Amino acid sequence: MEHAAPIIAILGIGTAVPRFRIDQEDTSRRLTEALQGNPDSARWARRIFKQCGVETRYTCEPNLLESASECRYFPSLPREDVPTTAERMATYKRESVPLGLQAARKALRDGATDAADITHLITVSCTGQFLPGMDAALVRQLGLAADVNRIPLNFLGCAAGLKAICLSRQIVSSNPDAKVLVVCVELCTLHIQPSGGREALFAASFFGDGASACVVGSARPHDKEIFRLDQDYSVLLPDYAEEMVWEVGNHGFDLYLSPDIPKLIGRWVPEEIERILNGGAKPDLWAIHPGGRGIVDALQDALGLTDEQTRPSRAILRHYGNVSSATILFVLNEMKRELSASGSGPVNGISLAFGPGLTVEMAKIAYLPSVVLLEEPAGGVCV
After folding, report:
1. Which of 116, 189, 287, 315 lies 20 to 30 angstroms, CA to CA, from 74?
2. What is the spatial distance between Cα 178 and Cα 180, in angstroms, rounded to a whole number?
3. Per-residue pLDDT, 373
4. pLDDT over 50 at 382, yes or no
């Protein structure tokens, strides 16, 4: 596809998951057993685990695969046996960096980029913190330059992955020689709560662990199968700050997700999409962060999308669950795989993610199977 101006694009994507796989039916059975003294909660757990659109996901915590009587994250054990926040953060510190390294190395290979060429490193996570942080560890273990510009985005929720991609585009737009490595690591299952409450069971039903990474920079002549990054847009929906709450507790992070979130997104987000499209045609590609089955359902209904347009989002939710900020790059990678396999030509699209606030992050994108150089009238070359 020919362009007369520099293309800022996602040049490479990488994803990684821990080695322990959670089977949804098995987990529902064990959790129901743990809740046998609370029949109402057990019925709710069976229902939400069946309806949330997840079949498998991954965890860094092998104890989550233990029997109901041995699992320290289930509500059957005494409170003093439940992992404290300090214990969960120790696991996060041990497991997050290796997972981030896997995703980052895949992204660098996919984007044909040397670690020494990275000028900016953006690390993203809302499920754990430690200092010196993951950014410092990645610099050392990836062999990035000691003076690489490090930008940690912490505790921003599910929308932070797309926020980091948009920030990367802004960096490269002001410095076309910049190369930005984005690394998102989320270990959501560390925060499963030993509670029979509906909010806790809902969160336990569909969050998973994983990491994703991408390289953002100016496209080069040899680049293929990239996502061009165009206009981005961020908006804070009014009056809905209490609909999604994520706070630090003594036994991990406590999450509250209002059951009204899908309805609110279906009501307000189409109007915001019109703002970024600015009267333009509705794109063909829809990279929607699958924050839950209800969110994808609401947007598909409100926007009149086809099953094929929401298939990548639903596939990621089904196989990996909601991996918080890392999820959007899982979706884009799945979309890229499909488009490449079909031999697709250039296709316009939009990417959307949602987080506490309620925050909506959006970016116009385009899949480009290849990049063609054009000679300018003055004899220069542009992409």
Report:
1. 315
2. 6
3. 45
4. no
